[in-house]
């Protein structure tokens, strides 16, 4: 698995309520994206930075998708997304009560 962490500066501070509405509206576009297992929307405590944490099945799918996502962030917010990719060899899932080692899709 691959984890991508994305951050970008917002043009102005966003409240938690505004973020929830905006993220809920955007959530549908992340459903059924090839290779995307899970996405967490992020908002900094001061409301000036947004982003996401993504869990992917494959690195090539992650990198291709993040090129598109970064272009959309630039267009919508005028911001450059900072993206970091990490190999994710172990996943602890407390909700499901399991640990995945050498996690594969």
Q: Can you give a write-up of this model?
A:
This protein is of the alpha+beta class and 105 residues long. The chain has a single domain (2-101), classed as Alpha-Beta Plaits, CATH 3.30.70.100. It is built from 2 helices and 6 strands. The protein has helices at 16-27, 59-77, and strands at residues 2-9, 36-43, 49-56, 82-87, 90-93, 98-101. The strands form 2 sheets. It has a 4-stranded antiparallel β-sheet. It is globular and about 40 Å long.
Strand order of the largest sheet: 2-3-1-4
Helical content, roughly? 25-40%
What's the number of extended β-strand segments?
Answer: 6
Give me the secondary-structure category: alpha+beta
Tell me the radius of gyration: 14 Å
What's the pLDDT, averaged over the residues? Answer: 94
Shape: globular
Number of helices: 2
CATH topology, what is it called?
Answer: Alpha-Beta Plaits
Unreliably modeled segments: none
Number of domains: 1
The CATH class is: Alpha Beta
| Major sheet | 4 strands, antiparallel
Order of helices and strands: EHEEHEEE
Distance between the termini: 7 Å
From the coordinates shown, what is the CATH architecture? 2-Layer Sandwich
Strand fraction: 35-45%
């Amino acid at each position: 698995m691959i984890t991508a962490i994305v951050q970008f500066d917002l043009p102005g501070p966003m409240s938690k309520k505004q973020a929830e509405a905006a993220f809920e509206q955007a959530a549908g576009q992340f459903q059924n994206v090839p290779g995307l297992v899970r996405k967490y929307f992020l908002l900094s405590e001061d409301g000036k930075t947004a982003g996401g944490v993504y869990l992917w099945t494959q690195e090539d799918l992650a990198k291709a998708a993040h090129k598109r996502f970064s272009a959309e962030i630039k267009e919508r917010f005028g911001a450059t997304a900072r993206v970091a990719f990490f190999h994710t060899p172990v996943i602890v899932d407390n909700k499901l009560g399991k640990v995945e080692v050498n996690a594969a899709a």
